[in-house]
Specification:
By secondary structure, the protein is α+β, with helices and mostly antiparallel strands. The chain is 38% helix and 16% strand.
Length: 68
């Protein structure tokens, strides 16, 4: 997945200008979207956090403790 730096910068600027925040849930991107959003200076003003669930095992279990 290729995310153009210009697009990420535009998204970051829009979030900052509007006082908005973002949180992401990723799968096959493996954290790439979070990494790109965090690469912009000042990301802490708009990026709340994210999670990456990459394997089918975690898709079907609400908690790692539930896997036995």
């Amino acid at each position: 997945m290729e995310l153009q730096p210009e697009i990420i910068n535009q998204v970051a600027e829009m979030l900052k200008a509007g006082g908005e925040t973002i949180a992401v849930a990723e799968s096959t991107t493996g954290g790439l979207i979070s990494a790109r959003l965090l690469s912009v200076p000042g990301a802490s003003s708009y990026f709340l956090g994210g999670t990456v669930i990459y394997t089918c095992l975690l898709y079907t279990s609400p908690s790692p403790r539930d896997r036995g």
